Amino acid sequence: AMQFVALEASVAKRVGLTTHRTVPVTQFADVREAGVGFLPSLTVGSFPTEGGTAYVHESPHWRAESFTKLLGVDVDGLLGHGCLDRYDGVIDYPSQTLFLRRPSQAGLAK
């Protein structure tokens, strides 16, 4: 199961994620409460993945709308290593694209 997805409350509401408890989350020496919920599934690029734990919190250190403005694409949340560690990846910096593949696959998918 995936281990880390961080979503803002507005995104969690939009995807129907409800939280069942809170935990302290530390970011840059700042401790805040985060709601903990379960996402039944998540699609990363063209890969559907199994579900897992998602943390719902607001942080002054990252805001989805700030990343959206900076990157010029819609950003809904952050994926941690626990979501991406099952894939091989290549970052094409000039085109700002992350290509992923399952280790058993020959080609890379966008």
Layout of helices and strands:
Layout: E1 5-7, H1 9-14, E2 19-27, E3 30-44, E4 47-56, H2 64-71, E5 77-79, H3 81-84, E6 88-92, E7 97-101
Parallel strand pairs: 1-4
Antiparallel strand pairs: 1-5, 2-3, 3-4, 6-7
Structure description:
This protein has 110 residues and is α+β, with helices and mostly antiparallel strands. The protein is 16% helix and 45% strand. The protein is built from three helices and seven strands; from the N terminus they run E-H-E-E-E-H-E-H-E-E. It has helices spanning 9-14, 64-71, 81-84; strands at 5-7, 19-27, 30-44, 47-56, 77-79, 88-92, 97-101. The strands form two sheets. A five-stranded mixed sheet has the order 2-3-4-1-5. A hairpin with a 2-residue loop joins strand 3 (30-44) and strand 4 (47-56). The longest helix has 8 residues, at 64-71. The chain starts with a strand and ends in a 9-residue tail after the last strand. The relative contact order is 0.23. The mean pLDDT is 77.
Summarize the structure.
Helices cover 16% and strands 45% of the residues. It is an alpha+beta fold.
What key phrases describe this protein's structure?
alpha+beta; two-stranded antiparallel ribbon; five-stranded mixed sheet; 110 residues; 16% helix; 7 strands; single chain
Nearest-integer average pLDDT: 77
Strand content: over 45%
What summary fits the major beta sheet?
5 strands, mixed
Shape: globular
The stretches of 5 or more residues where confidence is low (pLDDT under 50) are none
What Rg do the Cα atoms give?
15 Å
Number of strand elements: 7
Backbone structural class: alpha+beta
Tell me the strand order in the biggest sheet. Answer: 2-3-4-1-5
Q: Which sequence of SSEs, written as H and E, runs from N to C?
A: EHEEEHEHEE
End-to-end separation: 22 Å
Question: In percent, how helical is the residue content?
Answer: 10-25%
Number of helices: 3
